[in-house]
Amino acid sequence: MTAVSENAVSENFDTGAIKTSLERMFRFRKWRNIGVPLAILGYLAYAFVAFDVMGVASRARPENAAILLGDFWSYKIHVTRDNRSGEVVTAFEGERKGTYPAGEGPDWVTPGDETVMSLYGGATARFATENRAVIDVPDFGRVTTQVDGRAVTLTLPEGKDIPDWMSVSRNRVSIDQGNWRFSMTPARTEVFRYQAGWELFFFTLDSPFHGKSIGELVALGLWEPRVSPEHSNIVAMVNDVWTNKMWRHGDVVWAMGETVLMAFIGTMGAGMIALPLAFLAASNFAPAVWLRLTCRRLFDFLRGVDGLIWTVILSRAFGPGPMTGALAILMTDTGTFGKTFSEALENIDTKQVEGIQSTGATVIQRMRFGVIPQVLPLILSQLLYYFESNTRSATVIGALVGGGIGLLLTQAIITQKDWEEVCYYMVLVVLTVMIIDTISGWVRKKFIKG
Amino acid sequence: MTAHTVSGTAEYLALVRRRRLYGAILFALFVVLFASGFSVAENRNAGGFLDGLHRIFDFPKEIFSEAFANWRNLPRLFVAAVPSLIETLNIAAIATLFGGLVGMGLAFLSTRGLALWPRLTPVFRRMMDIMRAIPEIVIALVLIFLLGGGPIPAMIAIAFHTAGALGKLFSEAAENVDLKPVEGLASVGGNWFQRIWFGVLPQVAPNWSSYALLRFEINIRASAILGFVGAGGLGYDLKTALQWGQGKYDQVVAIFAILFLTIMIVDHISDRARERLVKGGKPA
Hints:
Chain A is α+β, with helices and mostly antiparallel strands and 450 residues long. Helices cover 58% and strands 15% of the residues of chain A. A 6-stranded antiparallel sheet of chain A has the order 2-1-12-11-10-9. A 6-stranded antiparallel sheet of chain A has the order 3-4-5-6-7-8, with no helix packed on it.
């Protein structure tokens, strides 16, 4: 019986039609496999021209990249002599707030009538009297420079030409050895030396704790006598770190907090506004069709207007600061949450609601015990996920509205020299996002799934 | 028997009470956090929340009234904004393309069961976490310093972030693949590349394309924002028009409108395409 019917089917089967359709499909696939990569390649070629890659490549400044990468993990100490007054100043990064008290300096600088600096690779430099400087470079010999009125004269070891690490003009001699540099102009003589690390990260030079080892600091904090009479040593240490003038840890922590705050208020506020609206927009709860459609369009509008536009509009009304950033996040996310929450509400199981209704529950009770338990896990995990991703966006929005770590980041980048601070803020942002990620993962596992 | 039931009920009620208590504590904690956070944000903001609330519509009113007065300019400004729009879209598309390719590589390297070097999967996972955590604006600003302004810094910045984000999603999708085809290919002597190419890619292609499309939507927004800090495209035009202030508000409105429309259209198309890919998208 079955065999017969199968036979009948196979006889009715138009094998020719199947064959042609299969062949067509294979042809299509063959062309697609060639065509899609070709289309992408063509697009890339167009973009290569449209983005002017060649032009950018010729304008790029690789030496900037070297400065930037070097600054990320190292710092330099400048030793500068004012050739007119003869005064020698030693300072971190040549900044006023990182200046050593007169007559002091790092161990490679020996102050005195003639300041002697021992540099890398056995080289030394000496600020000699009468505006002379003597530099001994191993394998090359002694280089002497001298200010002569409004010019600088140079004496090289006998029989040597100007090497490629030296640049000489009438009123300037400079030596660049990578990890240390020297320069002399009629106005001043300067040596700086690079070293790894972030300078004065914990204690600045004016702090009594500067230059102490970890062991000494522990001893000072726990049992040694007070350095300053009014505070205990631990309080004084925390205070010195917090008010560090080079790194401004206090301000940075505040700024990071502002950024997290923006994300928190924006996300949670959006959730609180979106939840009631989502009931109005879900087809199984909406009291009226026009209300439902209005809410849907509102969500689409809030989402469609880009965060950038909200930021621009809101910063006119609220001025710069974290509240503005929080509200900009709130606007877009209300749209997103409204959409996802209302979809979740549309997909609930009605049996649970009916069961509760059968016990004579009111509308509110049906919502509370029938609906909310079903959508709550999804809502909470959405909120947590967006909180994490908004912390990142809050950095960008902060740069636009002038609040939080985003503002500090853009300021540090615009100075084009505080790259170690840029690196510090970046590490801070990455750590914060990762911490929030870990916490939200833990909360999700503990309270939502478990 | 009855005693057992009674104690069971009592235990259940105690459990419910305890859960409610925890819920109440969490809720109270949340309210306190939110309220105090709100007041901190309020204090550190230049303008207050309530003061600003009634001024939200002042600026839109101002720009729209000017745009209405000069409505004759709008079509011309619309057309003038198209090249910038194309640049913004290009940045997003190329960034999605490159980011997606790198993300693919990272996903294969960090998926259990498929990884080329299984011991290194945690390393690649951490790498993607960091790539996702670094804000795009930082990379863009640093690259603007190195390469000068223009679309390329923005493209690289967005691609970097996209690689991390897509890598994670891709690897989650790849974790659920059926390993039988892979084993079959291994049994006939297929090398790692052949196993991935013929065994895994066909299975994950629909999901991956859908994620990439979603990312493209997100990247359009990101590329508009990065334009605002000097990376070209619509954002840059918007910034210059806003700095000009009154007299260029018709241009601001044109840019707002074209950005809004583009995002709506792309969202709509990609919504449709993703639905087809994931639900009905079994390859023909």
